[in-house]
Each structure stands twice: as structure tokens, then as C-alpha cells.
Design goal:
176 residues; disordered C terminus; mainly alpha; 65% helix; 2 strands; Arc Repressor Mutant, subunit A; single chain; two-stranded antiparallel ribbon
Length: 176
């Protein structure tokens, strides 16, 4: 009687979630570290970058709306906005249709710095992708639609829609 060929153990969601969490955490850390190699002057904290990305995707915006989208307290977002204003990256104003409503938006300097930051990340990731074997590059590309869907499910589970995410899922799909 022939013994059946050993099968790979089934992939468990817990193991995959653990591994994906680890990889995403290390990827974010590697990007934050490597950006400072290319731009040593870059000292904006991720919270400020994410706020600038949100403003880039949906601007002008009220501080309370930004806080809800970023899952931060209004006072935290106000503090971040103050720091970004001091750096000349955002400006406070009023909504044209209701001058009682205070809003913030990126300045031209803010848009340029964000574009530089995003381009630097794309160059770093592109250079790293080029070092992968062809089949590994194809595996990464093939995983992107599923990862984008995962982002959508995570936001849906948090009560945010893709639109309220202020573009995060579109960034996950490769728009960064």
C-alpha cells in the first residue's frame, strides 16, 4: 500500500494574520528609516504625513472631520495642524459656502513636500522590487488586488468607508 504524499499544512488565518502584521510593520519601519537616508532633513512624523495625505485626497477639510477619518482626537489633530501651519505646509481658512466653518488645506509647499515624500517612497520600493527575482516581483504584483481588498475590509470593520478613508485604499492600490 502506497503512503500518501505529505501535504503542506493548511494555512490558518491566525498564522497568515500574524505574518502579514509582522511584514507590514517591518515594511513601514524600513520605509520610514530609508526615507531619512534619501532625505536626511525629513523629520515629519507619520501622523503629520498621514494628515497631509488625507488633506491631499479631500481638501479643504474641517479639523473634526480629519480627526474622525484618522481616528484621532480633535485636540490631537488641532495640535498636528498647528505644527504643520508653523512649518508652512497647511493653511487655515473658512469654507466658501459657509464662512462660519473653519477648514484647513495644504499649501503649495505642503503639496510639494508630500509629492517629494511619495516619490521618494516609490523610488525606494521600486529599487527594492528590482532586486527581487521575476517570480517574486510577479507574486508581489499579484497580491496587490487582494491587499487592496483587505484594506477595504479593515476600514469597513472600523466603520469607515473607502471614501471616508481619504484615499488610503487607493494608496494601497499603488497610487502613492
Amino acid at each position: 500500500m502506497a503512503t500518501p504524499a505529505p501535504r503542506n499544512p493548511p494555512v490558518t488565518h491566525d498564522a497568515t494574520a500574524h505574518q502579514l502584521t509582522d511584514v507590514v510593520t517591518r515594511l513601514r519601519r524600513a520605509l520610514r528609516t530609508s526615507i531619512r537616508t534619501e532625505y536626511p532633513w525629513e523629520a515629519l512624523p507619520m501622523a503629520q504625513i498621514e494628515l497631509m495625505q488625507a488633506l491631499s485626497d479631500q481638501s479643504p477639510a474641517r479639523v473634526g472631520d480629519l480627526a474622525a477619518r484618522q481616528r484621532l482626537s480633535t485636540s490631537t489633530v488641532s495640535g498636528l495642524i498647528g505644527q504643520l501651519m508653523t512649518a508652512g505646509l497647511v493653511v487655515r481658512g473658512t469654507r466658501p459656502d459657509d464662512r462660519r466653518v473653519a477648514v484647513v488645506e495644504l499649501t503649495e509647499a505642503g503639496r510639494l513636500q508630500l509629492a517629494d515624500w511619495q516619490a521618494a517612497h516609490q523610488r525606494r520600493i521600486g529599487a527594492a522590487l528590482e532586486r527581487l527575482e521575476d517570480d517574486e516581483q510577479e507574486a508581489v504584483a499579484a497580491a496587490l488586488p487582494a491587499l487592496a481588498k483587505l484594506v477595504e475590509y479593515l476600514f469597513a470593520g472600523s466603520g469607515l468607508s473607502d471614501a471616508e478613508d481619504a484615499g488610503g485604499a487607493s494608496r494601497a492600490k499603488g497610487d502613492t
